[in-house]
Specification:
By secondary structure, the protein is α+β, with helices and mostly antiparallel strands. It is 20% helix and 35% strand. It has 8 helices and 26 strands. It has helices at residues 3-13, 33-65, 151-154, 230-236, 334-339, 342-351, 354-359, 417-425; strands spanning 97-99, 110-113, 116-120, 125-130, 133-139, 157-162, 167-172, 176-181, 187-192, 196-197, 200-201, 205-210, 215-220, 241-247, 253-260, 263-268, 274-279, 284-289, 298-302, 307-314, 320-327, 365-370, 376-382, 393-398, 401-405, 412-416. The strands form 7 sheets. A 4-stranded antiparallel β-sheet has the order 1-26-25-24. It has a 4-stranded antiparallel β-sheet with strand order 2-3-4-5, with no helix packed on it. The longest helix has 33 residues, at 33-65.
Amino acid sequence: MDGRNVRRRQTGRGSRVGEDTDDLPPGVKRYSADTDTQEKGFFTLSKISLVFLAAVGITMVILILLPSPVQPKSFSLPDPPAFEGVLAQNKKLQRAKRLLEGQIAGPESLEFHEGAIYTGTLDGKIVKIVGETIQSIAVLGTPPCGKFEDEPTCGRPLGIRITKDGTMYALDAYLGLFQVNIKTGDVNQLISSELVVDGKPFKFLNDLAVSDDGIIYFTDSSYKWDRRHNRYLVVEAGDCGRLMWYNTATKQIRTLLSNLHFPNGVELSAKQDYLLMVELTRARVLKYHLKGPKSGKVEVFADNLPGLPDNIRHSSGGGYWLAIAAIRNPKLPLFDIMASRPWMRSLIMKIFDQETFMKMIPKYGMVVELDENGRIIQSLHDPTGEVIPAVSEVLEISPGELYFGSYFAPFIGKLNLLELDDSNKS
């Protein structure tokens, strides 16, 4: 057998798959099962990629065309303060006790009078608390209560105050300003929320302070959003809030300040020569002068706070307790990051509803004490929010005896700072 036949047989045995194709006509490739599989895989991946890109593109178009419920404004804040010094993280709020847990809902604002605590609740009631006993003394709205759609008619009492003569003034977010007789439960509406002042309606009445001469200062957090949509108000960070003035003797009402950014808690100074007012979405407290050469002037009292502040009340040390609704985490300040990116806030509210958005915010309880000059002198923390997840107001009944309100929690918090200090010393 000559060598040519041997080479031919060897070539034939190995030429089924992937062999050289010298014996094929020019331009013709031998069929390969592997090549066919690779080509099919390539086309399958290409189709998947195209479908994915198309889906992403369609989703983006929908998100762009879908209207956002908010029209956010761009703004900026200073870098949040570090949690060090007087702001150093601690667990003092975790030593608090939960009172009346499961028996009360959303005790936003607290007042103390003749041995009893008074508060307004989510179900539209004003209640009196003595020990473990809760007594309903007034209902501002009409039932039913408990559902999202019920709130405007059920009512939601927020700020409450009791004067030296035992008269209560309550501000309902939806229904207006009321005078309440805490002994008989009689209710007298002083201002209806349907009243339009300077061309703007009351949408979100929030907190109040009452002077000795019968002037009531109160905040209308927004003439655009009501309390049910307060997350929209925070995300939008617009200037649709006002500080109002009402004379209980003459029944006159007027606007003191407008274009405010979620005005919230208010408190008169001990001498009643100025009023402090929280501006929540600017993380600061403003000082409005009522007397003297600066009367009518506004200046910043406390700036660049460690969180978004809620109500403000006197402390026994001559300063003020400031409740923090949500912190500005120095390591990842999401609120600050989104401040200059309104498109981001708009997109988030297109995707998530209010409740889902709130679940994304880490729980962290905090209150701070300010001195008479607005400097932070101490802070109380619950870093995990396991005991006190958030605070709307601090009531100091006696030196060191603190009670904590909340706009959503099913309890009132209590902490005795003096006992806390004693335990730390031992």
